[in-house]
Structures are given as C-alpha cells and as structure tokens.
Amino acid sequence: MPLTAPPAARRLLAGLPVGLLLPLIALAQAAPAPAELAEPVAGSSLTYALGLAVIDAPTYAGASDRVQKLRPLWSVRYGRFRLSGARSSGLLGAPTTEKHSGASADLIEGDRWSLNLGLRFDNGRGPGDDPALAGLPEIRSTLRGRLNLGWKPGRGFSTSLAYSADLLGRDGGGQLGWGLGYGWAPWPATRASVGVGATWADSRHMQTYFGIAPDVALRTGRAAYAADAGLLDVHAGAVLQVPLGSRWTLVGGLALSQLQGDAARSPLTRQATSATASLALAWRSR
C-alpha cells in the first residue's frame, strides 16, 4: 500500500523551498530515511530504550564526501529526567522538534506547552575529519547548554524554538533553532512525521565553522574568509516508525539540509545541500 500523507501534511510540505522540496520528494520515493529510536515512556519509574542504527551522512556540514556508520543508540528516562547517547535522542520524534542528546530535564510538560533544559557534549571538528579541512585548526570539543520551548496546537502539529550556547567558551558560539512538525498514523500502530526548520547562528559560531582567519589563510595558502551572524541552514525531514511486536520497532527516515548565507558561500563548503539517511532497530523496556 502506498504511503499517502493527509491534506495537512501536504500543506506543510508545500511551504518548503523548491531547492529542498524536489530532492525530498525524489529521495523519499527511492531511499530509506533517518532512523528514530522509540522514546521511553514518561512516568515515575525508570524506562529505557536500546537500539542500533546504520547512518549515512556528510563528513561535516558542507562536505561533499560522505561517511557510513554503525552506531549504538540508547536513552534512559526517569520522570522528567532523560539521558541519551550521541544521535540517540536526535533520532527521536518529529525531525525538527526532537529533544537532543545528552542530559535533559522537562521543566514544563503539559498537553500543549513544554519547556526543556539540557546539556550535551559537542565533539567539535578536526582537520583529519575530511581532506577539505587539512591544515585548519581543530575546533575543540565543548559542553553546550540548550533551552527548548515546544507547543502543540493540535491536529498532529508541533513547533519548537530552541537556543543553545557553548558553556566553556571554546568558540562554539550560539544557535537559535525553529522547527515545525506534523505527525499522523498512516496505518494502525504505525507512526509517520514530517518536519521543516531553520537555524540561525551568531558570528562566533559562523566564523569558527565556516570562516578562515587571516593567519590560517597565510599558513595554508587558502583565501581568508569572514563569516558573519545570520541564517545558517534550512532543513526538512521525514520519519516512519513501524512496530515489530510489543517492544521492538523498526524506524527509517531522511533528513535534508541546505546551508544559507555566509555558510553556503564559505570556501569550506563543497556542497551546500546534503542528505542524511539512517535505519534503526530499537527495543524499549515498556
């Protein structure tokens, strides 16, 4: 049976930029998509989820080379508190409204409004991650704080606004992200969702990840480049979650991202539009 989105989902996709919508349609028809680990159920008892994901993604934001990874996924929840491994929580829920990996606490969790505070470890970026980064200084790993405000207006829609910042002052800067998602059940016990979003970044983050300082340019023979604050990217995604019994779940999905502004024009950007695909098998305690 073909998967057909309801009218509300089609209206959501209609608002995508053409540069993102066309590849999304083509890839969604021909390839699997980002995987999502089934989230432990909220409550006063301890719940957890375990999984394994196959991920195909660019080596860094703006790269033309790709890397394939086999990654374990895990997430533990006790009441309002959650702890998730790398990418485990980023693969939960609607593509643009998920709670991110690391440690987090639900300060407010209502039927419509939610407020979440979290910490996560940012691995940074090394010159050995891709040949295009050779000779560039290492971006040090750091700890990022994140505040996420979510709202569910009803009828399957959800939206979020989040701010994250480098708490250790290691030039990670700050980011402001917005997302809009729509979820529905195409078949009994099956869950699907689509989403769009955008990310803004301050000048420190943009210069760290997409700029080339004059001294680095002189040392490496590259052209100096200054990246200023502004829109970093727009993104879209789709997720399909299929239960395999009472506790096992198979999840696939696809996420597309398109760099914007100074990030897209950076000499470090070899490909402004990228796709990340993944497939996961997950088990949860209840």
CATH class: Mainly Beta
**How many discrete structural domains?**
1
Alpha-carbon Rg, integer: 19 Å
- What is the tally of beta strands? 12
Helix-strand makeup class: mainly beta
Strand-residue proportion: over 45%
Chart the SSEs and their pairings.
Blueprint: H1 7-14, H2 18-30, E1 46-58, E2 66-78, E3 81-84, E4 102-109, E5 113-122, E6 142-154, E7 157-166, E8 174-184, E9 191-201, H3 203-210, H4 214-220, E10 230-243, E11 248-259, H5 261-265, E12 273-284
Antiparallel strand pairs: 1-2, 1-12, 2-3, 3-4, 4-5, 5-6, 6-7, 7-8, 8-9, 9-10, 10-11, 11-12
List the keywords:
Outer membrane phospholipase (ompla), Chain C; disordered N terminus; single chain; 5 helices; mainly beta; 286 residues; 12 strands
Compact description:
With 286 residues, this protein is mainly beta. It has helices at residues 7-14, 18-30, 203-210, 214-220, 261-265, and strands at residues 46-58, 66-78, 81-84, 102-109, 113-122, 142-154, 157-166, 174-184, 191-201, 230-243, 248-259, 273-284.
Report on this model:
This protein is mainly beta and 286 residues long. The protein has a single domain, classed as Outer membrane phospholipase (ompla), Chain C, CATH 2.40.230. It is 14% helix and 46% strand. A twelve-stranded antiparallel barrel has the order 1-2-3-4-5-6-7-8-9-10-11-12. Strand 2 and strand 3 (81-84) form a beta hairpin. The longest helix is centred in the first third of the chain and has 13 residues, at 18-30. The radius of gyration is 19 Å and the shape is globular. Mean pLDDT is 85; it is low at 1-5, 8-38 and 90-99.
